[in-house]
Amino acid sequence: MRNKKLVELCIISMIAAIYAALTLALAPLSFREIQIRISEALTLLPILFPSAIWGVTLGCFIANLVGVLYGLNGIGIIDIFFGTAATLLAAMSTYQLRNIRIKNIPFLSALMPVLFNAVIIGLELAWLLFPDTLISGWFLMGAQVGIGEFAACFILGIPLTIHLEHSATFNKLIEYIKK
Fold first, then answer.
1. 3 state SS of 31
2. Taking a C-beta distance cutoff of 8 angstroms, is the pair 113, 43 a contact?
3. Residue 174's pLDDT is what?
4. pTM for this prediction
5. Cα dihedral sign for 31, 14, 87, 37?
């Protein structure tokens, strides 16, 4: 039993490390007003196993913290909390909707990170950049974040998830954890 928990903890840690590394390595894409966080493709991993929720959340927290500490993140310290919360809510919703599929593709699950990030990160950016015209700024920033999130989740995340679902090695690992 202890080995299974250790394996699960290692997987969570690897997801967090991959998320943070991708986000930080691609910082110009990850932290600006028009952003495409490639690492957000990983927010679909909870479709495959619920522990991934904690991996992507921890990875987002680390990336946002380092981003703030090194001045990569234009939003500032607020993003450590609200950006991480957006990822957590998106990952939890992705997991909850994992069995709703169209032609065996989890479109609704993939839509959750798009919506949560468009609303929450869009509001953060609007508050920072357009405090006088918050509502119109929110729509503008939300749309820009949503487009980037859509690209990460639908162009990268869905194929990644489908590939992992059909991977014998990955499925053996997940089955080992579940037992």
1. coil
2. yes
3. 82
4. 0.91
5. positive
C-alpha pair distances (Å), 74 with each of 8, 79, 112, 175: 34, 9, 24, 41
CA distance 49 to 2: 18
Query: CA-to-CA distance for 126 and 33, rounded, in angstroms?
Result: 9
What residues contact residue 56 under an 8 Å CB cut-off, 6+ apart?
15, 16, 19, 42, 43, 45, 46, 87, 91
Domain ranges of the chain: 2-29+37-178
pLDDT at residue 2, as a whole number: 67
User: Which runs of consecutive H residues, i.e. helices, occur in the chain?
Assistant: 2-25, 27-30, 52-69, 78-96, 107-129, 134-150, 158-165, 168-178
Q: Which of 105, 83, 77 is nearest to 35 (CA)?
A: 83
Could you tell me which of 46, 51, 56, 103 has the C-alpha nearest to residue 83? 56
Low-confidence stretches of the chain (pLDDT beneath 70): 1-2, 33, 74
Distance between CA atoms of 59 and 14, rounded to whole angstroms? 9
Residue at 43: amino acid letter = T
* pLDDT for 30: 84
**In this structure, what token pair is assigned to residue 169?**
């090695």
Amino acid present at 70: Y
